[in-house]
């Protein structure tokens, strides 16, 4: 059985306050353990601040980008092994594992390209120079430089590879060392990624650490130059926001939490049209990919009243062909189990809550025996489609995210204002997708819901052949959202680096500013 230790302070150590066992969610067999051990987290943070900060900030953006490119190459070369581990520890199908692992290497490569474009400099200028005196001689320039601390990343169970990479890419390129903590239950992929990176001797000492298991009292030692980025439940986010470092020392915190993402089908979209096919492909994919365990998954599907039955029938036909089971036991399986026993119980409870206020569309309440399952083992949940004809009064639809292969078709009047009112009841989301070929519908709806989302996906016939769907997080675009979604922002190209940098206004002789920044 594999033993997953932490890599902190430049060495592998046992760091968790208790031993933890990792399981295969398809078979419930133990496959790895995180051993118990004690670590001086104050000392480990000091090591990263001193070693990691100095080594990274001595490099130019181009050089840091080269490190990211080497990481991307290493993960791509180890892709098959990582896919196998994702199936064993996460219950991923091959397609789902590739989505996670390729997303990780693609994001690292994307930020490597940004580093090359920023060039051989250590300072990032922010905006144009400003004349603030009687003449241009007395000028000002905003700049961004890396914070002199450590970026602590707490990642979710569903994307162990992509979650590590998307946070680390922006932080490392900005010049901040990273301490990354994957969710314990699915830590096998992230742990092996760390081993691969160390085997290739890619990063300088202290630049990247991995925390397996509990982080102990690490958060109590964060200082004002450190940052904390978290992806997970809103309940945990509340606890983190109340920690001493955040409250008393102004540690910057970024949160990505729950999200009741929506899809809106406009009344102009005809059944059988290319735009309807795009809509159908997207909602079914995002409902079932990674067994619905995606922060960007579509949970609420708003459809004009006269199209509800047709949409339910079309989705049900697609879902009926979906084979659920152990991906390692049968190559025909297209959806595996949820990741953990706790997740299984939470999803089943969420379905029951939703079922009490909705009618069945497909799949009942998710009871299913997975193909290849032996002795009833495995945390399998079948795809569940619920229906409501009165979405405004369906409290469960707008108040609780069921983090599994579950979605609800909800009727609206067909008016943009009606759709907007229902979408906004989710109180903030990562992404909502709109499907129409009517520019007027987009023009009416977008201004009504944009403030409630980090991203809006505008699906139409013109982009049907190019779109990867709303559930794919792109390195160039913001990932995050207001309200229920946590109020944070990640990625977005250069924007993703701002969290790890301090913006400072320089004012003085323009010639001196030019000498510092290179901007004339």
What does this structure look like?
The strands form six sheets. A seven-stranded mixed beta sheet has the order 16-17-18-15-14-19-20, sandwiched between helices. Strands 11-10-9-12-13 form a five-stranded parallel beta sheet, with helices on both faces. Strands 6, 7, 8 and 23 form a four-stranded antiparallel beta sheet that branches. The chain contains 15 helices and 23 strands. A hairpin with a 2-residue loop joins strand 2 (6-8) and strand 3 (11-13). 36% of the residues lie in helices and 21% in strands. It folds into two domains: 2-257 and 489-517, Aldehyde Dehydrogenase, Chain A, domain 1 (3-Layer(aba) Sandwich), CATH 3.40.605; 262-478, Aldehyde Dehydrogenase, Chain A, domain 2 (3-Layer(aba) Sandwich). Helix 2 (61-77) runs antiparallel to helix 5 (160-174). The radius of gyration is 24 Å and the shape is globular. By secondary structure, the chain is α/β, with parallel strands linked by helices.
State the main characteristics:
2 domains; seven-stranded mixed β-sheet; Aldehyde Dehydrogenase, Chain A, domain 1; 520 residues; alpha/beta; Aldehyde Dehydrogenase, Chain A, domain 2; 15 helices; five-stranded parallel β-sheet; 21% strand
Short précis:
With 520 residues, this protein is α/β, with parallel strands linked by helices. The protein is 36% helix and 21% strand.
């Amino acid at each position: 059985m594999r033993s997953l230790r932490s890599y902190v302070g430049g060495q592998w150590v046992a760091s968790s306050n208790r031993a933890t066992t990792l399981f295969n969610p398809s078979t419930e067999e133990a496959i790895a353990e995180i051993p118990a051990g004690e670590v001086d987290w104050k000392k480990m943070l000091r090591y990263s601040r001193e070693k990691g900060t100095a080594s990274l900030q001595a490099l130019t953006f181009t050089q840091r980008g080269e490190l990211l490119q080497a990481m991307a190459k290493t993960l791509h070369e180890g892709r098959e092994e990582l896919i196998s581990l994702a199936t064993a520890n996460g219950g991923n199908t091959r397609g789902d594992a590739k989505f996670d692992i390729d997303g990780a290497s693609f994001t690292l490569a994307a930020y490597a390209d940004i580093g090359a474009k920023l060039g051989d400099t250590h300072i990032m200028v922010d905006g144009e120079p400003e004349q603030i005196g009687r003449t241009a001689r007395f000028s000002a320039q905003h700049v961004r430089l890396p914070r002199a601390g450590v970026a602590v990343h707490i990642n979710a169970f569903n994307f162990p590879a992509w979650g590590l990479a998307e946070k680390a890419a922006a932080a490392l390129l900005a010049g901040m060392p990273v301490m990354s903590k994957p969710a314990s239950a699915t830590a096998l992929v992230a742990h092996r990624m760390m081993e691969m990176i160390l085997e290739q001797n890619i990063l300088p000492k202290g630049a990247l650490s991995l925390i397996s298991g509990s982080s102990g009292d690490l958060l109590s030692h964060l200082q004002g130059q450190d940052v904390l980025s978290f992806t997970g439940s809103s309940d945990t986010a509340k606890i983190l926001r109340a920690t001493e470092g955040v409250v008393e020392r102004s540690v910057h915190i970024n949160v990505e939490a729950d999200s009741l993402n929506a899809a809106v089908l406009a009344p102009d979209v005809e059944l059988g049209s290319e735009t309807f096919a795009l809509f159908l492909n997207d909602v079914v994919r995002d409902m079932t990919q990674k067994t619905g365990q995606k922060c960007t998954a579509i949970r609420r599907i708003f459809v004009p009243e006269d199209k509800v039955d047709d949409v339910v029938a079309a989705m049900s036909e697609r879902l009926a062909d979906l084979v659920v089971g152990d991906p390692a036991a049968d190559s025909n399986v297209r959806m595996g189990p949820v990741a953990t026993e706790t997740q299984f119980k939470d999803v089943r409870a969420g379905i029951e809550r939703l079922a009490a206020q909705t009618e069945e569309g497909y799949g009942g309440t998710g009871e299913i025996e997975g193909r290849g399952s032996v002795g009833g083992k495995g945390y399998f949940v079948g795809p569940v489609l619920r229906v409501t004809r009165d979405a405004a009064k369906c409290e469960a639809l707008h108040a609780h995210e069921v983090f599994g292969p579950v979605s609800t078709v909800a009727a609206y009047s067909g008016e943009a204002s009606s759709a907007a009112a229902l979408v906004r009841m989710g109180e903030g989301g990562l992404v909502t997708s709109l499907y129409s070929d009517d520019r007027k519908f987009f023009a009416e709806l977008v201004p009504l819901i944009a403030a409630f989302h980090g991203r809006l996906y505008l699906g139409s016939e013109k982009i049907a052949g190019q779109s990867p769907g709303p559930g794919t997080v792109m390195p160039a675009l913001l990932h995050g959202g207001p309200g229920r979604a946590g109020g944070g922002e990640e990625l977005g190209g250069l924007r993703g680096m701002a969290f790890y940098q301090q913006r400072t206004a320089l004012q003085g002789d323009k010639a001196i500013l030019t000498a510092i920044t290179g901007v004339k």
